[in-house]
Amino acid sequence: MKPRGWSKPGAVARAVSAAHAGAQASLPELAALIVDREKWLRAHPRDDASWAELGGAYVERGARSGDTASYVRAEKALKRSLAVLPAGKGNVDAQLGMGALTNARGDFRAARKWGEAVRNHAPRRWQAYPVLIDAYSGLGDYVSAGRAMERLRALRPGAPALSRAALVYRDKGWREDASALAHDAVALAATPAEKAACLARLGDLAWERGEPAEAIASYEPALRLVPGHAPSLAGRARALAALGRTDEALRDYGAAMEALPSPQYALEAGELYESLGLDGDARTQYEVLRVRAMEAGTHGVNGALVVARYEADHGNPEAAVKALRAEWAKGHRSVHVADALGWALYRAGEPEEALPYARRATEQGLRSALFAYHRGQIERELGKWGPARRHIAEALRINPDFSPLLAPKARRALAALGEPPDGGPKDVYGEEREPRQRSGAGSSRVWSPPPRDPERRQPQPREPRRPEGTASPSTPPPGTAPTPSTSPPPGR
Asked: pLDDT tens-digit profile of 14-72?
């Protein structure tokens, strides 16, 4: 029973309460909080805590609405807070805001710096650990991400911690554990916006396992809770496309981009159009991708990964290689960057250099159909028929419809690779055996190597070998972290 005189908290109070709990407020509540703090700060410009709160609200609005100009406003507000009360004098809230901002912009080294500064000064401030989890994951330091996640769960059990833990477990390849934690997060979510986010994560995990109908069963209640929830719309679009309901999928992609103008959504929609033979519509989406990525870049957002993925498959693979080498040199060595760089090198005609990156992407733990397909195609180009067959088949086992463009290519590639050779692979028995293609009882037709990918750009003649003693980029040995190259990307 509520006490006499009690009234329902207003939008500002609900947004503040959600922020303190680590939960998501609704976008209208965030907007109300921003208006309230801006009004207050016009009269009280020396209030460092309100400047930090305003900056944090701008970061969240930018991340959830795609309004990347909000990041510029967030940076100004957070710097004002630090000017009033410097980090060295205990302005933890502004430092946390800067950590969230730099993560949202894709500057993971800076985010790690802000998060570690707070952790070192106030190790029990649980808000430092979500910043660190995202930063470490973006840098490819999954061991440290796991430690930060365990610390977060110890300090602040609840839906936000469980939802992040689900992602950490997914990155380790622990799919069942990730799904169990995501279910628990849904049950514990405190606000409709937070519950919708947790349901969308649950749907994403189902989609990655190749279960589109189960994924839709999570996205639809999320959309009932928060109509226009962009991650759920985009996730449902992927699942609908896998089920052959392409008109509905294209409708959902359009609605998702209305709610959150993400270059990633434009890339996915463009590839769906292309798979349907609607090349004009596909080109329109790819142009949207370029425009939105460029606009976000003017606001400090690093869109190199999604743009490079577009360039590798639909544009200029050499440009993708150059951009991704720069990311690698900055320390952005997540499995996503490793996979994208390996694939871009392959598409640019450098499969030998590509393979160590593809191995790194597939051997960290994350079970990704896309990564397995990329590795298999690279191995196929290098004549490694057994590993190629194994990884392309693995991609289709993980998710038979992982991409409207690439899944059909994976099935064709697997058919072209044919049956394993009689007598087992030579790397098991340590000797060459004469492989045969099965074509019926008693067949003795000699097997011939499967064809390589006819759509991939072929390597160009290399320059003459450099004289001994001169610098030359080297390919990292298999099983080790590749060393970033500073040489220009391969020519056409």
From this structure: 888 878 878 788 999 999 999 999 999 999 999 999 999 999 999 999 999 999 999 99
52, 218, 235, 240 from 211: Cα distances, Å: 42, 11, 12, 11
Residue carrying structure tokens 């916006």: 193
Q: At what angle do helices 212-225 and 230-242 cross, to 10 degrees?
A: 150
Token representation of residue 298: 């003017």
Structure token pair of residue 108: 């993971």
Give the list of residues 6+ apart from residue 329 with CB closer than 8 angstroms, or none.
Answer: 484, 486
pLDDT of 385 over the 80 cut: yes
Say which amino acid occupies 462.
Answer: R
Using alpha carbons, select from 112, 122, 114 the residue that is nearest to residue 78. 114
**Per-residue tokens: 200:** 């969308």
Indicate the DSSP class of residue 88. G
Q: Is 336:305 a contact under the CB 8 Å cutoff?
A: yes
Report how far residue 104's alpha carbon sits from residue 127's, in angstroms, rounded to the nearest whole number: 15
Residue owning tokens 């896309």: 370
Angle formed by the axes of helices 263-275 and 279-298, nearest 10°: 170
Give residue for tokens 């890339």.
267
For residue 183 the two structure tokens come to 């279910």
| Amino acid identity at 139 | L
At 67, phi and psi to the nearest 5?
-80, 85
Of residues 365, 375, 383, the one with CA closest to residue 340: 375
Q: How far is CA 35 from the centre of its chain?
A: 32
Is there a contact between 288 and 257 (Cβ–Cβ < 8 Å)?
yes
Tens digits of residue pLDDT in 183-239: 999 999 999 999 999 999 999 999 999 999 999 999 999 999 999 999 999 999 999
Residue with tokens 């410097």: 86
DSSP state of 332: -
| Coil/strand/helix, residue 295 | helix
> Hey, what are 287's tokens?
């142009």
Cβ-contact 253, 263 below 8 angstroms: no
Model pTM score: 0.86
Paired with 436 in beta bridges are 446
The answer for residues whose C-beta is within 8 angstroms of residue 225's C-beta and 6 or more apart is 192, 193, 195, 196, 199
